[in-house]
Amino acid sequence: MTHEPNWLLDWYWNDVSGKNVSHLICDYLKGRCKLRMSGDLHHYMRHSFVKSDGLGPVHVQHLLVNGCGGAFLHPTHVFASFNKLYGTPYDCKAAYPSFEDSSRIALGNILKFRKKNWQFDFIGGIIYFLLAFSMFPQCKLGHILQDDSFSGHLGSFFGTVWNAFIYLLERSYVSFVGALMLLIAAITFVPSKVSRKKRVMIGIIHVSAHLSAALVLMLLLELGVETCIRHNLLATSGYHTLYQWYQTVESEHFPDPTGLRARIEQWTFGLYPACIKYLMSAFDVPEVMAVTRSNICKNGMASLSRGGAVIYYASVFLYFWVFSTPIVSLVFGSYLYICINWLHIHFDEAFSSLRIANYKSFTRFHITKDGDLEVYTLAVDKVPKEWKLDPDWDREPKLPQQQSHSRRFPSKWSAAVPLQDPIHTVKIVDHFVIKQTDDSSTTASNGSIAH
Length: 451
Fold this sequence. Notes:
By secondary structure, this protein is of the alpha+beta class. Helices cover 50% and strands 13% of the residues. It has a 5-stranded mixed β-sheet with strand order 1-3-2-5-4, with no helix packed on it. Helix 13 packs across helix 14.
């Protein structure tokens, strides 16, 4: 028994580890090791050696890994191609979850990644904003809105996206540095088992997907602002449109014949209307963004003060962050799904991100009267999320030194929903028998295997 299943991990990483254990099994035990067990990988798999003519010495009959008590689940389909150890061929006799279920579970990276990892939104939105930072604002968008056909709109749209990408490469600073840093991080993120050339290719494709999404979102946001400006919904009368509307409503419904408001303004040294005006301006983010964008497009970025630039980019960031967070999670989740199901990499990241608490199992041994070793693995697909104290456990009389497994109600806890109780849902996912052999026997035999 070892902590890690070296036979699987060494095959996966193309590595050699556990040399002392291998030396013990091959040079000292010499076929007397019937079963090798480990955990660490959070799934269940059993491989048994395959009988064939001319087969050399079999050092280990069965290879079993059961780490289903872990905090999350690991895939099994990634290790489906493992078939040899110490020169002996092996065949996978049991896998839990099955290869098909494991591949299907990986789809959750596309559908559930954001729900399970909502904290990723914070950094993901910031990364997308940095990628699109240098492209704000887009002043010349009339050609997109003026096309008559849908294909014309679409062609102009993606043509503008391409021009923004060229601008990023040739003239931008912030977005170019952000894209370069993201590319380095993406290449480094690819597991080392992949060749350097493939790591670079995977990293470039990954970053290209994020960069394309960021540029498309940037242009959609700019088109939305441009459309509102053209229909006189924004940027009609400066930064304080909301305050002007407030003054109109106030004078209409709350007349001030005594001039009280003017005296309050005088007594507060102008703070009374100024606080309301600038507070309303702070909450009227679309208006601030549209007015500043119009000023930049007319007079250039140089006409904007440093404070004005900070206010403009802060207002853009608020909306762009909200739009980009679902997309960045979708793109990254799709990347993990493609990697785990097609490239068979990122098995740890792809499944730990899903935080699957189901598919629990444990292995039990039983020595028969004939000296054979029976191995059972029991599993539960769905783990109850809510538990309650079992009243039957309290009422059952307990004898001194009585083992819990001999009681009628061995557990103090039961599922809050009776149908989800593991007592009713537990199943045997694997059962095999290792026959007893004589001490003088040095060559392992397969014994009888039952399923």
